[in-house]
């Protein structure tokens, strides 16, 4: 789904292709953004396990935040045993 | 084309039966409804047509009006021509689905036998159910008698299903006063009606291999645009409704206009009403003229979209109005007709409009009551009195 079109170009009645939930980027709901400090991260995967939006991804032997879907709830930062994740204000 | 002379066929029908007959003639594919007074006979008659094989439609019995309109929404998405009917609390139970039907742009047609809303419980006519639909994105038509509700029901399908419109449409009549009153109704031949409404063109083919989502999440980034589209559909419908009225006149010989005008050519005071009261108002206008008061009548056939153009045209020279509302907008300054007229008028500084609430819960309105109210209106206008909603026919 692309949501930068004029109302004249959008499908009337809001009919969209099935299974298109992935295209709906929910990252812009965020007011705070988790930033991982890799010097402190011990790769324990607690954040990965607890993220309610599955927005923490495993990349090789690291974790990364998928900012397309992270809503900025801060659970990862709260639960991180080494305080490696900081929540920073989103610039509007 | 079949001429009017060749279709001089009539049935004896109540408003409800006239609607059922029209729905059979437009050949709907799908009906779902739940019985409620005073509408019940519509769906009773339709289920009989289906059981007898006279109408090849799927008739789905449900446990509530909420389910009835939900089933209609599903069938309409699938491309079916869909009909439902309800009244009062039944409509209110459908409420959650009313804006869904319009938001999904589904051309469902509903018949509404208008009835007062509870509490206290009452089965008789006023317009409180109809008026509650105002904000839900439905095109709204209202009939004065059984003939009109037959005609409007047929036209409702053509209006709703037009690709420029795609909006659900309600054709309403006064409960009991019209819904249960036997009347001669001139009907068209089946083939004429079917040719007039045509086939519904489905926008989508439901296909498991290529799934579609109807009614997805549309938040801050898109909801507003979809609402803007609905506004445009209403704008488009203004033209379509007038086209359909004209086209219907060609096949039926019966002229429809957004506003009915009676003795308005030289009128100095106008009575405004909707539904069966328009007929009583005609008699009242004649009586007033016998007494030397040049009265005319304006009746709303099209309620939504508001017939702004016609309101301005009709009221060009008539600046004193007695507006009759069979609905009490509790807590509001005035009723819906008053507000529609005032907001429609391009020039409003010299207009004297007085609002009267009457007939709630089926309380009778008489010619005399209208005559007296018009006289009172003229007095108030002379004294330039401010408008304050008044009640007609209530015990003080």
Question: Describe it for me?
Answer:
The complex is a heterodimer of chains A (92) and B (396). Chain A has 2 helices and 5 strands. With 92 residues, chain A is α+β, with helices and mostly antiparallel strands. Chain A has one domain: Alpha-Beta Plaits. Chain A has a two-stranded antiparallel sheet with strand order 2-5. Chain A starts with 15 loop residues before the first strand and ends with a strand. In chain A, 20% of the residues are buried. The model of chain A has no long low-confidence stretch (mean pLDDT 93). Chain B folds into 2 domains: 5-252, Thiamin diphosphate (ThDP)-binding fold, Pyr/PP domains (Rossmann fold, 3-Layer(aba) Sandwich), CATH 3.40.50; 259-392, Rossmann fold (3-Layer(aba) Sandwich), CATH 3.40.50. Chain B is built from 13 helices and 16 strands. By secondary structure, chain B is of the alpha/beta class. Chain B is globular. Residues 1-6 of chain B have low confidence and may be disordered. A 7-stranded mixed β-sheet of chain B has the order 3-2-4-5-7-6-13, with helices on both faces. A 6-stranded mixed β-sheet of chain B has the order 10-12-11-14-15-16, sandwiched between helices. In chain B, helix 1 packs parallel to helix 2 (40-51). Chain B has helices at 15-25, 40-51, 65-77, 88-94, 98-103, 128-131, 146-161, 190-197, 223-252, 277-290, 308-314, 336-344, 367-382; strands at 9-13, 30-33, 58-61, 82-86, 109-114, 139-142, 169-174, 183-187, 212-213, 259-262, 269-274, 295-300, 302-304, 320-325, 352-358, 390-392. The longest helix of chain B is centred in the middle third of the chain and has 30 residues, at 223-252. In chain B, strand 15 (352-358), helix 13 (367-382) and strand 16 (390-392) form a beta-alpha-beta unit. In chain B, 39% of the residues lie in helices and 19% in strands. Strand 1 (16-17) of chain A pairs antiparallel with strand 9 of chain B.
